[in-house]
Structure formats: C-alpha cells, structure tokens
Amino acid sequence: MQRFNARSGLKFKSDMRDPPEVQTSPGNHRSSPSTVAKPKWKHTKSIVFVIVSCVTIALGLFFVCYSISRSGRNRRVSLRYSIIIDGGSSGTRVHVFGYRIQSGEPVFDFGEESYGSLKLSPGLSAYAENPEGVSESVTELVEFAKRRVPKGKLKKSDIRLMATAGMRLLELPVQEQILDVTRRVLRSSGFEFREEWASVISGSDEGVYAWVVANHALGSLGGEPLKTTGIVELGGASTQVTFVSSELVPSEFSRTLDYGNVSYNLYSHSFLDFGQDAAQEKLSEFLHNSAAANSTGEGIVPDPCTPKGYILKTNLQKDLPGFLADKGKFIATLQAAGNFSECRSAAFAMLQEGKWKCTYKHCSIGSIFTPNLQGSFLATENFFHTSKFFGLGEKDWLSEMILAGNRFCGEDWSKLKVKYPTFKDENLLRYCFSSAYIISMLHDSLGVALDDKRIKYASKAGDDDIPLDWALGAFILNTATATFDYSGKSRKILDLSNVAKYKT
Ligand SMILES: Nc1nc2c(ncn2[C@@H]2O[C@H](COP(=O)(O)OP(=O)(O)OP(=O)(O)O)[C@@H](O)[C@H]2O)c(=O)[nH]1
Ligand SMILES: [Ca+2]
C-alpha cells in the first residue's frame, strides 16, 4: 500500500509487516527549503548510531577472527607431533604427523592441517660412494619438518629414519656409514632422537606397516582378521606381500600383530631385489646370461622389454642408483626388440630363478614360500603408477594391462616419444617392462586370476583418501605403543621377536 505525502513528495511504502521504507517518486524533487529539513539533533543521533554500529561490527569481526585463529592455534598447541623419514631406493621422504590423545587413544587425522610430507631424490643408497653427501638432503627434510612443528614442541616430537630395500642392498659397512651421517643430522635437529631410531628396517616390517595403514584407512584394523585387506607393494628395490592367511605359515614368514583385542596372524615377506627398478636392471644381466647362445654373433642380445628403435646407452650405467651400478655393464650388449609376450616370459623366468631350492610346500617366486593369496588386496606403488599411466579401469585392470602392454611394447620408440612428448626417456622406457613384470608377478607367479575383482590398484584408501604409505602405518603403531605405554597399559602391539632374522 503506498501513501503519498503531499508536502514532502515522498511516497511512504509501508506495509504492516515491513518497516517503513522511504521512496522518492520521480519529478518530485524540490530544491526549495520547503522540503522538510531534519532537526539538527536527529543528524547527530544518526551519526552516533552509524559510528556505534561500525564499532560493534568491527569488534564482532575481530572477535570472530580471533576465535578462529585461537582455535586453530589451540588445535596446533593441543597437537602432538611425530616425524618419520622413509629412506627408499628412489627417494627419501619426510612425513610429519600431528595427532592428539583423546581418552587415552591417539586420534589420527591425515588431513592437510595435521599431515605433511616432502620427497627428495635420489635415495640414500645413491650415496654409497659418498656417504657424507647424505647430510644435505636429510638436513633439508629436517628443516621441512621444523617448519610444521611449533618451536615449543620440537623436543617432545620424536624423529625416526627408517630405510628400506635400497639400503638393504648395500654392504653393511656402507649402510652404517650412511646411517651415521643421518644420525649426526638428526641428533642436532632439536627433535627427540635416539641413535637406534635411524636404522634399516626389515622388509617384513615394511610390509606389516603398509598393511596397517591400509586397514586403518579401510576401517578394518581392529576388526575380524579374515575381513582385512592384504597388500602387494611393487616398490623400486623390493616387493612386499602381506596378508592374513588361514594357511599354516612357516615362522620365518609369520608375523603376529595384536591390535586392540584382536590378534592378526600375518604372512609378510619382502622380495628383495624384486622391486621394479631393481628387477629391470637385473633383467639386462639375465637376458645376457640366458640368451648368450642365440645372440647375434657380435654378442648383441635382443631385449624384448625395450621398444624397438631405442638405443640402449651405456651412459645409463652412470644414472643407476648406487645399489644397481654394477648391473649397467650388460646394457651395452642389448638391442631393443620390444615384444610384450617375450618380455613377460623373460620376467617370469627371472621370477622363477632358484625355484629348485624351494624347501616348502610351494614357492611362488624363486625359492620363497607364499601362501595362496586369499581375500581382498590393494596393489600399490608401481602397480598403481603403471595402471594410471595406461588409464586402466578398476574392474579388469589385469586383462587390460596385457592389451596395453602389447600395444606399448610393440610400438616404435620414435612414435612413443611423439605420443608422450612430456615424459623423460628413462621414465617412458619403464612401461613396457613394468606391464610385463606386473602380469608375470601377479598372475603367472602369484596366481591372481586376470578377472579377479578382489585385487585393486591404489595409492590411497578409505573415505579420507589416506595415502597408502608404509610410514603412516609405522607412525600408527609407534603412537599406539606410545599411547599404551603412556596410559600405563603394557600390551604387545607388534611381535617383533623374529625381526632379528631379517636384520642379518
Ligand atoms: N611411473 C611412475 N613411477 C613412479 C612415480 N613415482 C614413483 N615411481 C616409482 O615407484 C616406485 C616408488 O615406490 P617406492 O616404494 O616409493 O619405492 P622406493 O621407496 O623408492 O624403493 P624401495 O626401497 O623399494 O621401497 C619407484 O620404482 C619409483 O621409480 C610416478 O609418478 N610414476
Ligand atoms: Ca618404499
């Protein structure tokens, strides 16, 4: 309803429900003083009102910002921190974990706020000839960690360096020289550190840790053993297989993990030197030795795992990580002859080498016992990277891997370079061997059916997309132990009694 005020020319649009709103109707603007001038005191009142409301709004905004920053600071202040440095063959990564204790239990949150990581290449084993060189990269990783932990918390935050297969492949004295350099850096880092916290962990431990983070992410850790998910990890220098087996497992492969009120009897083994990078380098020696008979006379041996047209350079040898340097000498005698099936057969023959020494009921790889895989599995690291590269589906990724490998291995190198212009040669080169190696390992050796829906490739898992990195599993167990110690309950978390067997 609109009322017209004859004197002011102002239309009051008022409605019983709405506060009165003043409208000036067009053409009714009067310049004469006859327009109703407001009394002086009204102006002052509205100016005071405006100032008071601005100050109130400003104070309100300040309070909101302060409480947000305070709660963020409180969150960080209430957080505890733990740092793990993973010394892998292809790189060294630092993981910084923030966590809190709620009613005696650690609460893990691998979101951005509580978790950060940084990877530096090359890995520790690349410094075999120059152990002192390690200090630079470890120092850079420590500095990354210090930027994520409040200064006042450094002394209460433990830092560990846990090296894996790349270091296991070095001679013990060289391992110790490299570890001593890392200990010197960690000792002066300001974090809580003990000498024994810089070590080469056993492959079996590495597998258990990866199993722990996968089942934590999937929510099955602490649940029924046969409802847990196994892990197969194709790393750079080693491959881990870890899962709950209902078969009787010889003690050298058996691990007991007590978590919550549940005891898990795990099969866990790390196939040292059967990581993808190590296997690909071993293959050149294997091809040379096994095909010497039918080489082309001048000692040239066909290499079915390298696409035709690629010139295998001897300078690849100087690019090899420390533990592989001596393998490079065979590269010069190889000739690229890309063929997926032949590469798959060569990889399978390499995986079966030493089978005659098998003293168990059955051996799937070399003379090593592996129970028949049972239940669901996540296939990580190179299983994931290569499947991603070929854009394989979730369901039939193994059958698709064969098709993709056939195409890739059979393609001429010059065409692959045009198709994948952004890839460095040494990275693009890996995919023919990788596809064949994956099939020869999972299907030909471990007996996974090509259409088995229970095995999926992944790099993350669970609703929170938790990274499937064994270091997160090590952190979970370390913290759980710490918590149990902390709350006075001394319960066995991880039966490490037989870890000594792996240390030698
Ligand atoms: N194709 C591809 N491979 C990758 C990528 N990032 C890492 N890799 C490879 O994946 C493997 C890394 O797995 P990791 O477990 O981290 O290997 P690592 O820790 O360096 O070696 P280990 O000591 O055997 O554990 C190595 O073979 C890397 O070369 C990537 O983006 N693409
Ligand atoms: Ca690794």
TrEMBL record:
As given in the record, the signal peptide range reads none
Q: Where are the transmembrane segments?
A: 47-69
Residues at the active site: 206
The annotated regions of Polar residues compositional bias extend over: 22-35
Going by the record, the broad EC class of this enzyme is hydrolase
Question: Where do the annotations place ATP binding?
Answer: 236-240
Assigned keywords, A-Z: ATP-binding, Hydrolase, Membrane, Nucleotide-binding, Transmembrane, Transmembrane helix
Question: What Pfam families does the entry give?
Answer: GDA1_CD39
Q: Determine the domain of life of the protein's source.
A: Eukaryota
Instruction: List the GO biological process terms.
Output: nucleoside diphosphate catabolic process
Q: Which reaction does it catalyse?
A: a ribonucleoside 5'-triphosphate + 2 H2O = a ribonucleoside 5'-phosphate + 2 phosphate + 2 H(+)
InterPro entries from the UniProt entry? GDA1_CD39_NTPase
- Which residues lie within the region annotated Disordered? 1-37
An example molecular function term from Gene Ontology annotations:
apyrase activity
Q: Which GO terms describe its cellular component?
A: membrane
> What family does the entry list?
Belongs to the GDA1/CD39 NTPase family.
Name the UniProt record assigns to this protein: apyrase
* Native source species: Arabidopsis lyrata subsp. lyrata
